[in-house]
Every structure is written in structure tokens, then in C-alpha cells.
Amino acid sequence: MTLKDFVISLSSFTEPARGLAFHSVCFTASEYPALFFVRLWQHIKDQKKVIQPFLVEGLEWAQIESRLMMSFLGQVETLWLGNISLLDVSIKKKLIVFLEQYQGPHTVLYFIQLSDLSKKQNGTIDLTFPLNNEDQDFLFTRLFSISKDQFAQSIDSAVYKKLTLDQVCLLAHYIKCLGSGFKLFVEQWFSKIIRPEESLFTLAQYFFGKRKNEFFKVWFLIKDDYAGPFWTTFWSEQLWRAYHVVKFRKENNFAQSKQMEFRLPFSFLQKDWKNFSVQELLNTHDAMYRLDYGFKNSASENGIELFYHQFMQDKFK
Questions:
Q1: 161 and 252 fall within a common domain
Q2: 317 lies in a domain?
Q3: Which of the ends of the chain has fewer CB neighbours closer than 10 A, N or C?
């Protein structure tokens, strides 16, 4: 199913669920595109159609099954379950099998990461960017009321192909505001708005591997792209996730560990995590918190490089 077909089918009937060929529709991509879904649901709302949120994260299986199987006085609804990849592993497995065979009474919409996608799931909409040409046209013209050509011509073609759907949605908001000034805006501000994920990923890989020479080579190339508060936020998230991965794995709680692995480097998840204690990561995160407090109270941003040296020298063990 294409994104265009989904929205047109949904908009063609008084009751949205009546227009879809499947009782369950699955959106998928490597990561959850939050900005895209905000815009999509607003567009559908503008069409006077109702999508009923039924976010399943944190619910017991019996609650989920009961809601999806019951209909009050024969009322058919279109339900949005959210990102089911965030669910506990046992509930997620049950729900995936359940949705593969779901025959109503409602129509169920949900997102699942590509790594969790089953080949048996019907009505799948792949949101990996670049979308197919038909869906790209639909995204720009219907969801954002802008020209696809104007957008694409303002961005290098090689870069365009590497954008995520959420990055495209973010830039689409800018082009709506700036119009003909968007190309100049991209030239001056693109690198500040779109995070160079590959560089940050490499930096984090060298950080957790304590590969000092390689780390500082990358650091000096990209450090001036962002101010101090960005770096403290970035490292706080990395350390927070790393702390929980190490904690859960050492407790043999691999289901919970899996939920914390997003955005952490592969080398850490494969081998480097074994080199850390929970206490070291806790101490490192505490040091980053103090550094962040200093930045917000006019301290020099040079302190972050001292933090790096201390970490590489095992000062937080």
C-alpha cells in the first residue's frame, strides 16, 4: 500500500475505517518519524476524519486484546496504537501475531520498526526515505503544499537521498515559511539543523571504545558545528542509554536492554559494553551533568575537552 492510497482511501468515506482494504495498516521505517505523524494526523483531521488514539505502551495484553476485539453498539473505529516496537518483548510478539490475523471489528493503524517487521503483515506502508515518486509528490503537495522540485533543487542530490522522513518534514516547514529564500537558508544553515548522524555515530563509537587519537580527530572536525549545550545533551543521552544497557545486560534482562539500544554505536553494543561497570557510567553521567550546569551558568565551554581526557584516562571508574 502507498501512503497516497492510504490517505485517499481514508478520506473517501464518512467512517474512515470503511475505506481501507485491510483491518490493520502497518507503517514501518528504521526509526519512528514523529514529525511526519504529527503532520499526517493533522492533515486527516483537516479532512474531518477521526483517528482515535489507543496508545498501547504500558498496557497489559488483556487490556489491548479486549479493546481491539470489542465494539460498543456496533461502532467501528479507526485506532492508532503508536509505536509497538517499544512494547515489552512478550507483549510485542503476541500483538504482532494478533495483528497479522486481525479481522476487525475496527481498523488498526500502528508503527513498527523494520527490524521487528513480519513478512505476514498486510497493508504495510514503508516510510523509508526517499519514498517512491508517487508518495514523494503526495508528501510535498498534499501534506505541506509545496513543490517537490523546489525542495529537491535546493539540496544536493546525494544529501537528499540520505535524509530521513522527519528531516524532510522539518525542512518542509522551513520552505513554507521562507519561500524563495529557502535555497540561501540551506546554504547557510543546513549543517546546523540536520545532524550529521554518521559523524556523531563515529564520535560515539570512538568515545565508548576509548580510542583517544581517533576520537579527537573527529571531535576537532565537528565540534564547532554545535554549542556546548548541544554536546552535553548528546552525551547525556548516550551515557544514560549506555548505563541502562550495561545494567540490564548484567542482570540478564535482555528485553529491557533492547529498548535502550537506539542511537548507541554498534561497537558498544557488540563488545565495548563489557568494559564498563554501571558505576563508571553513573559517575561519567554525573560529571556531564555538572558540566552542563556550568555551561548554563557562564562557565567556559573548554571544560568539555577536560571531561573527554578524564574519561579516556579512566578517571570516572
A1: no
A2: no
A3: C
